[in-house]
Structure formats: C-alpha cells, structure tokens
C-alpha cells in the first residue's frame, strides 16, 4: 500500500544541526505551533513543522472523537447493583489509535534527532 511508503529527502547537515531545537518542538503537541508559524530559512525545520502540525491536527480530531465515543456507556445490573462502563469495542480501538499516534510522534522525534527528512508513515503522504 502507498500509505506506508516513506519518502526521504536529502538534508543539509549544517542546517539540521543549527536548527535541531526548533525541529524537536515540531513533534511536541501545542509547542509545534511555534516552529510552524515562525518564519525561518531552514528547510529542515519547515519540513518537520509541516509534519508535526499535520500530526497535531489528527491528534485534535482524535481527541474530539474519543471524547464523544467515551460518552457511550453500557449499563449492567447484577445483584441489585447497576454499573455503567465503556464497552470494549469502543475502548480498544481508541487505545490502539492513541498508541499509533504516540509512535508517530516518537518516530518524528527520532528522525529529527538523526537529522533526517523522512516522512512519517500513514500521514506523511497526506499533505
């Protein structure tokens, strides 16, 4: 499948080394907006700011959907005691998606620390 293809571009090591801190901010939620809106000459920071902001937007959408879906509760009564819980068919996919988003953040940070312009799997080809 094409969504799992990872593209890698050539990196100017001097540019990457000098702007490493700004590029690291690109994968920290909410702080990623600093390098995204800050105008720099660095292609390395711009690339990772775009990837990090795309991931951040997906995380916000996930948060909204998780908030909505966790409001769905099922009642179970046993021995006169009724409890409400989130069913497994809702909680397990939410946890798996959260783990995927976390691993994409870690992958992005790994790419920055190794000074690579490598796209993130799945979301790297979106924009």
Shape: elongated
C-alpha Rg (nearest Å):
19 Å
Give the strand order of the largest sheet, numbering strands 1, 2, ... along the chain.
1-4
How does the helix and strand content classify structurally? mainly alpha
**Strand fraction band?**
5-15%
Largest sheet: 2 strands, antiparallel
Task: Spell the H/E element sequence.
Answer: EHHHHEEHE
Q: Taking all residues together, what is the mean pLDDT?
A: 86
Query: How widely separated are the two ends?
Result: 17 Å
How many beta-strand runs? 4
Please count the helical segments: 5
Low-confidence stretches: none
- Helix amount, in percent? 55-70%
Please provide a written account of the structure.
This protein has 127 residues and is mostly helical. The chain is 55% helix and 11% strand. It has 5 helices and 4 strands. The chain has a two-stranded antiparallel ribbon with strand order 1-4. Helix 4 (43-69) runs antiparallel to helix 5. It is elongated, with a radius of gyration of 19 Å.
Report a brief summary of the structure.
Helices cover 55% and strands 11% of the residues.
Which keywords apply here?
single chain, 127 residues, mainly alpha, two-stranded antiparallel sheet
């Amino acid at each position: 499948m094409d969504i799992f293809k990872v593209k890698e571009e050539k990196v100017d090591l001097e540019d990457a080394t000098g702007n490493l801190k700004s590029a690291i901010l690109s994968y920290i939620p909410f702080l990623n907006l600093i390098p995204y809106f800050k105008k720099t000459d660095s292609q390395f920071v711009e690339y990772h700011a775009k990837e990090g902001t795309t991931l951040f937007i997906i995380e916000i959408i996930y948060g909204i959907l998780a908030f909505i879906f966790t409001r769905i509760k099922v009642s179970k009564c046993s021995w006169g005691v009724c409890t409400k819980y989130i069913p497994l068919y809702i909680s397990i996919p939410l946890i798996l998606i959260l783990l995927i988003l976390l691993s994409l953040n870690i992958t992005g940070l790994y790419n920055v620390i190794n000074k690579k312009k490598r796209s993130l799997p799945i979301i790297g080809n979106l924009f």
